């Protein structure tokens, strides 16, 4: 999933929800949303079948497992489930949670950049002196997540990045829908 660039939800000609996964290497996957739910429930049913023993502790484990899978897959609107927090690899190769409000405006050699993912194994910067459309969708999404709104300048940069990200995702989807069979065109 580290190669995932964008996910769009569209309807096909029968009215079914289709998830379109755009990968950073250019590949595109189309998956029926109902098939995903069916697959997860089938796996859950199999795991709960394994734990169907008359022993009460196994039944308790089975119930905990069902609850955990429901939360992780987002199938139910469980209020106890925490929000999704994106992660990245740090310089030691460990997965680290992205920190909110950690993006900063930095000037290096007279060039203003927005620095984010500072603990990562790679340096991530978005140049503010050129068009934001030249940045990758994944980088924009990570920068938006980490940019706070307490500073008015950062708030304006975040608003611009959100606008550019929406346009880039719409363009990506529009290009795909021109070549896809059985999927209605996106409406502006």
From TrEMBL:
It comes from the Eukaryota. This is Uncharacterized protein.
């Amino acid at each position: 999933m580290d190669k995932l660039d964008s996910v769009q939800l569209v309807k096909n000609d029968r009215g079914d929800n289709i998830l379109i996964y755009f990968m950073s290497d250019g590949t595109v996957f189309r998956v029926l949303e109902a098939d995903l739910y069916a697959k997860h429930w089938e796996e859950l049913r199999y795991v709960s079948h394994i734990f169907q023993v008359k022993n009460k502790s196994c039944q308790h484990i089975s119930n905990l497992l069902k609850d955990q899978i429901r939360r992780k897959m987002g199938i139910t609107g469980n209020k106890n489930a925490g929000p999704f927090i994106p992660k990245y690899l740090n310089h030691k190769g460990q997965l680290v949670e992205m920190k909110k409000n950690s993006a900063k405006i930095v000037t290096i050699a007279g060039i203003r950049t927005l620095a984010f993912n500072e603990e990562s194994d790679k340096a991530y910067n978005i140049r503010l002196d050129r068009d934001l459309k030249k940045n990758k969708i994944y980088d924009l999404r990570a920068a938006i997540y980490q940019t706070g709104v307490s500073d008015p300048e950062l708030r304006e940069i975040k608003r611009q990045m959100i606008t550019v990200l929406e346009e880039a995702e719409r363009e990506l989807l529009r290009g795909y829908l021109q070549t896809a069979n059985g999927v209605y065109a996106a409406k502006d």
